[in-house]
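Input (C2H2-type domain-containing protein):
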Amino acid sequence: MPSNLGRPFGCDQCPKVFTRSENLQRHKRARHGGASLKDFQCAGCQARFSRRDVYKRHSGRCRALLSSGQESQPEVPWEPTPQIDVDIAPSLVVMDQSSMNPVMITQAFTYATELLQYSSPSSATHSDSEERHIKAYFEHFYPSVPLLHRPTFALFSTPRLLVKATAVIGSLLSSQPEDCAHWRQETWESGQNELRHMVSYDLSEIRQLWVLQAWLLHIIYGAVREIGLSQQEIAMPDSQSWVYQCDLNSPVDDSKTLYARWISYINVESTRLSLYTLFFLDSQTFTSCNARPLMSPMELGWELPFPSGLWEARDSQIWLQRVNEHLGHSTYTMPNDFLHGPRGPATTSLSIATQQLMTEAPSPELLAALEASPFAAFCVLANLNALVRDFTRCYYQMPPSASDPFAFHILTQSQNKQIHTAIRAIARIVKGQAYTSDSSQFHLWRMIELFISSLRISLCRPDQLFIGGIVDNSLISGMAASTHLTQRNYVAIRRSVSIVPQHLGADEGILALLNDLSGALSRISGENQEQVIYETPWTTVTSYGILLCIWGALRRATTDIRHHLDTFNELPRTSESCMLIFNSLMESALLSLSAENDRTPRDPRLWRTDRSVFTSLLEGGESFFIGLMKRFCVRRCPWGIGSSMLAVLGEIPDPSPSE
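Output:
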């Protein structure tokens, strides 16, 4: 007897058969209908469902819906709006542009692109202050972390929880951020609780792109990792379909197909940027308090981010034009390139890109990718920093060598050469940008410059907390501990206390860094004060670490000069390492202050051999530099890092000659 005798309703697209007509229709919507037949849309988080019972179950637990005070209306089906599907779909998202209101689409995209205040019936609940905060987010924070897709970010269609997370960060960069401190803390805490509740109730919620983005923004203000999400082939097996779906050489592309391809690109790139953001946040946050990161760069199996010009395109036509400009025409007719993407194998993953960059002849496609995406260049630098820390961790567990007690050579000569090769390649890219303070990429390229200096420092002067094995429980406490440790040469003590004399100097490693330290100090101290208040927290932490290194070098050089004075009753020669370090760093510090105050850019006491003239600079040099660090902290107030470090520096007694 046929197995489907009692099931007269068969699917015309697969072998499934059903006993009831409504079951067949539900099956078609769920299995063969695609996004266009998901008729039920949640009024809170904008998720769409093809089955009414699943929609009812979701609406009963949707915290975005409950927090907005709305009631679910399961009998009202979804109607097309210019909202991008919140699901991270591995295939192209097909949307019918003919059913959309072109005015609504244009206005929705205009809000974030032109930073205008746009109001719609569904956005009436957004206050003027909230819109002002979101505007500040896109003006000042977004250029450094392009996590959200600015051209399609709209208040009326973005999930409320993501809007509030964006506003919280933007409020830090708005005028008078202290006026909304209570609201900011309350919103952040409630958002965290809401995300935890949502994910704990249904782990698959983390696959929704806006949930992942909201998590990252909450992490930035204050790790989640799903199996398979870190591997591009597993999470999105069709992630390259937006490239190969049709021929980009065609002068005219069907508008609906082009729009669908653009939306597909946005979904894929949003996921990619979210995971890369998670990687660098993990590494930067844990580095400051000396805890090992939770995520290894080896497990991030996603291509490097695509050019920022594609991400910033405000519509599909501009996007298509930039795709052709950045990726070229010929790549789309080569089937063999599909395995590695349109940019070749060198950009396949973060690890492969890092390895390629450490060779003498890195791939031109890789260099072009880093030049077109400063965020990708920064992630490669973060990976290089993780590599150096891993080498350092192993090196300092080996017994010290009597012939090299201070051990500023962490890597072998060959390894040092490979790291420096990669650093030079990125430095040349940054130099070629010739960016200015009015550039849209100013903060990101400046941040990369500072990270290059920090990475070079870590090759010669390892982090004090790192070598000391001191692990703190927060970024602020880790920075405070590093500040106090800078008052002594803890690295040398930890490494070689049993085989070196009591007098610990020998700061030859700093000689190789003088040019980097002087340049970094000039950039840090000579910033446009209207720009530094919009600095990202990891840039502030990196800059403060560079200042600590300079302060430690000045302190040790001062001690060596005084020791020479006490022993020989004369100053060391200006070619001595201690004099080179002291004069070079003090010259940079004094020049920065002179430029700021429009004074004569030269102190006559520098590079002098006359003891009576030089002694006053020697005695006041360290106090002067601590004052410079305090001014640095005063100007970095939005994230609370500057005020916290200012309090720590206030606890340090004034240095005295008898020290």
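The radius of gyration is 29 Å.
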